[in-house]
Write a structure and sequence with these properties.
Order of helices and strands: EHHHEEEE
Largest sheet: 5 strands, mixed
CATH class: Alpha Beta
Shape: globular
Structural class: alpha+beta
Strand content: 25-35%
């Protein structure tokens, strides 16, 4: 059973900017999200410490953070950050 996806508004805005600037990066984001929706536990890496409950996956030089909700079978994309900002 696949999961549904929701986005935090600022992340949705960042994806819109990525689509306008670099279509290849946008397509890579879409591919990664499709993989996450198939099986969110398989493709991501669980975070630790104060970020427990979040998962991360690499998209080129960026990190995509998401949260899994088993009750509603959904994945919430919460952040899309450049490696350099961390």
């Amino acid at each position: 059973m696949s999961y549904s996806v929701t986005f935090v508004p600022r992340v949705e805005k960042a994806f819109g900017k990525a689509k306008k600037r670099d279509m290849e990066t946008y397509k890579e984001i879409a591919r990664k999200i499709a993989k996450i929706l198939e099986d969110p536990y398989r493709f991501g890496k669980p975070m630790r410490s104060e970020y427990k409950g979040l998962w991360e996956i690499h998209v080129k030089n960026n990190l995509l953070y998401y949260r899994i909700n088993e009750r509603s079978k959904s994945v919430e994309i919460v952040a899309y950050l450049d490696h350099d900002t961390l």
